[in-house]
Design brief:
The chain is an alpha/beta fold. It has 27 helices and 26 strands. Helix 3 (about 145-165) runs parallel beside helix 7 (about 210-260), helix 8 (about 265-280) runs antiparallel to helix 9 and helix 18 (about 515-535) crosses helix 19 (about 545-555).
């Protein structure tokens, strides 16, 4: 370290030798100041703690105790550079320095003269600057206009001192004794409570007349601000006096009411509250706090605003289910029966609930799990929560988080605010009537945040088993135990759930239903429910299986069954009208007459048919409403090697296409493709249904196969569909949504599906009846893809 300092000193001496002999500039260590300005002849102490500033101070003490002080433009900058401080500052002499605890040094300095940085020689280990001193303008005889400005400034400063409580009256005579105009301006400015930028403007005014004029404008502005502050202060005092008068009158009214015996019911109410509080058997600290609030009502006017706040607060606390617990249904078979009655499928969710019941039977005092059900809309995530509550024999409460942006929605408002209420968590617990309900946070992926706080962060305490035992609502300000609550959250996707929140939950994926599952759900659950809702009997309306399949395939396109139920309700309404017109009528709806009730078909699934074609491949995609097939088309056009991508493709999908083209160019010889194809031809890749946004890497091998088919003039097998991400080396990487994609391929009549080899475990989730009807080929490279997808030349 010593060598480094010596090296810097040597550099400084070398720089000094290079300066001209007739140059008045000096080389001085520089210390940037934060929120502080120093003027010539001003004595001031300040603390420094930054390494560069301490090094500069130590260097100055070793030299002639002279240091250059300049204000930072932004006081929050911890490590300033050359551009972060003003070029004009004050050359000062260090009078005293004192080391304080914590590596801080207190310095006493006296301003000598203004100075301007001519050059910054180096920045490490401290700022060393070539500074030109600015000589103060001296007046043997002060001109009349300058004298007038001095009197005006002095008068304004006297007015400023009268309006400002920070200026002592004793300061005026000492300021008035200053005879030099430039120094007078500096002394007055140093005592003003103004911004650093304004003080800097005075420091940079070398011309004395200009300096006095600038100071005069600043003083006039500050006097006006101080007068406004005094007016506001007077109004506030008047309001306080009015409030004190009202309080005195209310006290008199209270005494009159006591004489008339009108406060007996308040005493009875307080006595009743204390009895209820004792029955709750709260922890000692909580009991004392609530008891103190109840007894406060004795000391204030019950009809006052504060009395109303205390009354609401106490009533809220006494209404909470502190020790009320419902008895759980621990019969596993009974619970399983209830879950199966209400919902078809959802095996993972049901299995997890039954496991919880079993463990709760063996281990007493088990904390409630926090489950997150993630899946497409309409798959029964919200309704299964109600079913879980019924199976466990618990109360059920629900809170929708969609669009919630205020942290107070979760934690409540502090009682200092007018109209404060508890958060929705505590309010829901109050409505539940027990301390172990099933609590559903619906649509947790759609929670937001703004200037009012981050509700997701507030939920961290609620959904953390280690913290929610002592959940603190801002309104209650006492801990409430949420550890016995079974929390369930729902979401359509995990991407928008904050990571810390997701980490506290046990995620269970709820996938979309197959056509067979939808038929089962419709026959066993939806049709009977809608018949009852529309007042129909079984003999009034008979929906055949073909009709239900027709509704599923041609009038809905979803992973769940919400729209399916809506369409069944539509059929029931039309049937109800006919039944009212003819009481003995039995309506039969089949696939043949379905259009009579629901109109023309709205959706046509892409049934793969026709001949094998060149440059057209079938890909598989995942959407929020389930899987779908993509027909990818490619064509060549004379041009200059441009790649055109259409069909509203996202950034990731476009990058996948470019990756595939690069792979083809690197393998052009092996694929028997002209090496110059990318120079003489434009390549256009299009994915139909251009109004629908598409993105993701899973169409990589599909687009690559389509381009190779076109360039080699080889047809693609029509009955083959594929999905997978491609790399520059032709490797096939795994993708998501395999179950939904395969089901879409099955609906479209695909016989063979090419999947990444790493997705082998996902085949277990595909229904057995679908697996039996389709062939799955697991591929690792593009060579395997081309072998299965392209039609081989038999010649």
């Amino acid at each position: 370290m010593t060598e480094e300092i010596k090296y810097e000193e040597m550099n400084e001496e070398e720089v000094t030798e290079e300066l001209r002999e007739d140059d008045d500039s000096r080389i001085i260590p520089m210390i940037p100041l934060r929120g502080l300005s120093i003027f010539p002849y001003m004595v001031l102490h300040f603390d420094i703690g930054r390494e560069k500033s301490i090094s500069a101070l130590e260097k100055a003490m070793m030299m002639n105790q002279m240091v250059f002080l300049s204000a930072q433009k932004d006081p929050d900058t911890d490590l300033p550079t050359v551009d972060d401080f003003y070029k004009i500052g004050t050359i000062a002499k260090i009078k005293q320095m004192l080391r304080l605890p914590g590596d801080t040094i207190r310095v006493l300095v006296e301003g000598v003269s203004r100075g301007e940085i001519k050059n910054v020689l180096f920045e490490v280990p401290y700022f060393s600057c070539e500074v030109v001193p600015v000589e103060e303008q001296e007046f043997p005889t002060i001109p009349a206009n300058v004298e007038a400005l001095m009197r005006s400034v002095l008068s304004s400063f006297e007015e400023y001192s009268e309006a400002s409580p920070r200026i002592s009256p004793d300061l005026i005579p000492s300021v008035a004794s200053v005879t030099q105009p430039g120094r007078l301006a500096d002394v007055i400015t140093s005592h003003l409570e103004i911004k650093t930028e304004e003080k800097q403007s005075i420091l940079e005014a070398f011309d004395v007349e200009e300096r006095l004029e600038l100071l005069s404008h600043i003083l006039i502005k500050e006097i006006e601000i101080l007068n406004i502050e005094q007016d506001i202060s007077t109004k506030v005092k008047d309001q306080i006096n009015k409030s004190q008068r009202e309080y005195y009158l209310k006290e008199q009214l209270r005494a009159i009411q006591e004489e008339l015996g009108q406060d007996e019911n308040i005493a009875d109410e307080i006595h009743e509250w204390l009895k209820q509080l004792k029955k709750l058997r709260l922890p000692a600290k909580t009991h004392q706090k609530v008891e103190k609030e109840i007894l406060r009502l004795n000391k204030i006017q019950p009809s006052s605003a504060e009395g109303g706040v205390i009354r609401t607060y106490v009533e809220t606390i006494l209404a909470l289910p502190w020790n009320k617990t419902t008895k759980d249904n621990k019969d596993l078979k009974e619970a399983e029966k209830i879950l199966d009655e209400d919902h078809y499928g959802l095996e993972k969710v049901k299995e997890r609930v039954l496991e919880y019941l079993a463990v709760m039977e063996l281990a007493k005092g088990l904390k409630g799990p926090i489950l997150c059900l993630v899946g497409p809309p309409g798959t029964g995530k919200t309704s299964i929560a109600k079913s879980i509550a019924r199976a466990l024999n618990r109360n059920f409460v629900r809170m929708s988080l969609g669009g919630v942006r205020d942290e107070a929605e979760i934690r409540g408002h502090r009682r200092t605010y007018i109209g404060a209420i508890p958060g929705r968590v505590i309010s829901a617990m109050k409505d539940a009537g027990s301390n172990n309900p099933v609590f559903l946070f619906d649509e947790i992926d759609k929670i937001g945040n703004d200037f009012r706080g981050d509700p997701a962060s507030a939920l961290l305490e609620v959904l953390d088993p280690e913290q929610n035992k002592d959940f603190m609502d801002h309104y209650l300000e006492i801990p409430f135990d949420l550890s016995k609550v079974l929390f369930i959250t729902t979401a359509n996707g995990k991407d928008t759930i904050p990571r810390p929140l997701l980490d506290r939950m046990e995620v269970i994926d709820v996938s979309g239903y197959t056509e067979e599952e939808k038929v089962r759900i419709a026959e066993d659950y939806l049709v009977p429910k809608q018949l009852e809702a529309h007042g129909l009997k079984k003999e009034n309306l008979i929906l055949s299986e073909s009709a239900i399949r027709g509704v599923i395939n041609h009038y809905t396109r979803e992973s769940g069954v919400r729209n399916l139920e809506r369409e069944i309700a539509n059929i029931c309404r039309k049937a109800a009208r006919k039944v009212v017109e003819d009481r003995d009528l039995t309506i039969r709806v089949s696939g043949g007459n379905l259009e009579k009730y629901l109109g023309k078909k709205r959706f046509l699934y892409d049934i793969i048919e026709g001949e094998n074609e060149i440059g057209i491949t079938t890909g598989l995609a995942w959407t929020i409403v389930g899987g779908d097939t993509l027909s990818i088309e490619t064509t060549l056009l004379p041009g200059s090697g441009k790649l055109v991508l259409t069909g509203k493709l996202g950034e990731v999908m476009q990058e996948s296409a470019k990756t595939g083209i690069s792979y083809i160019r690197s393998r052009s010889k092996e694929l028997n493709i002209s090496e110059d194809f990318h120079k003489d031809w434009d390549l256009h890749i299009h994915i139909p249904e251009g109004a629908i946004p598409k993105d993701g890497p899973s169409a990589g091998i599909t687009m690559c196969t389509s381009v190779i088919s076109l360039l080699t003039n080889t047809p693609v097998r029509r009955e083959v569909a594929m999905t997978g991400e491609i790399t520059l080396r032709g490797k096939v990487l795994p993708v998501g949504g395999i179950r939904e994609k395969v089901l879409a391929a099955h609906r479209a009549g695909i016989k063979k599906v090419l999947l990444p080899a790493a997705n082998r475990p996902d085949l277990d989730e595909i229904p057995a009846n679908v697996r039996r009807k389709m062939e799955f080929v697991l591929v690792e490279t593009m060579d395997q893809v081309l072998k299965e997808a392209l039609v081989k030349d038999e010649n």
